[in-house]
Amino acid sequence: MKKVLFMAVFASVFAFTNAQTGVIGGNQNNDATKEKSNAGISFGTLSHNFGNIIEGQIATYEFQFKNIGTEPLKLTQVKASCGCTTPKYPTTEIMPGESANIRAEYNSAGRPGTFNKNIFVNSNAGDVTLTILGNVVKEPEKPISPIIIR
């Protein structure tokens, strides 16, 4: 009876210890299998203020960046926070020391007022958030010319 009790306690302690480490059979160390990159990304600026733009215009700005690492830089995903903003970016690798641009286009049609939009950049060098902001104003009305009757 003592042997059975001892084995039950030993098995419980062993199971509890392994459950605390998060390893239950096999090597689950994901750090060893992650691919590390020596690419680096550096932007000249992370935000741009358009100021006042007239409603209906498409406001564009190009964010310039450079690969400051020693391996090729690959942009894996670039997406905007909403459908009114469209990012355009290079799909080819940027070699070390080379520069490229991410073009942000904001469609102001039907969107009067202030805006603050994000562009999320994912790459093998890490993640960066770019921001565009501004104020959409209605186009000033043209003065009505007087009608001259003779």
| Beta strands, count | 8
What overall form do the CA principal axes indicate? elongated
How is the CATH topology of the domain at 41-137 named?
Immunoglobulin-like
Helix content: 10-25%
* CATH homologous superfamily heading of the domain at 41-137: Immunoglobulins
Helix count equals 1
Topology as H/E string?
Answer: HEEEEEEEE
CATH class of the domain at 41-137, please? Mainly Beta
Strand order of the largest sheet: 1-3-6-5
Q: Radius of gyration in whole Å, from Cα?
A: 28 Å
User: Gap between N and C termini, in Å?
Assistant: 123 Å
Structure classification: mainly beta
Describe the structure.
The chain contains one helix and eight strands; from the N terminus they run H-E-E-E-E-E-E-E-E. It has 150 residues and is mainly beta. It has a domain of 97 residues: Immunoglobulin-like (Sandwich), CATH 2.60.40. The chain starts with a helix and ends in a 13-residue tail after the last strand. The N terminus is likely disordered.
Essential attributes:
single chain; 150 residues; mainly beta; Immunoglobulin-like; four-stranded antiparallel sheet; four-stranded mixed sheet; 1 helix; disordered N terminus
Write a brief structural summary.
This protein is mainly beta and 150 residues long.
Write the layout of secondary structure elements.
Blueprint: H1 2-21, E1 41-43, E2 47-54, E3 58-67, E4 75-80, E5 85-88, E6 99-107, E7 113-123, E8 126-137
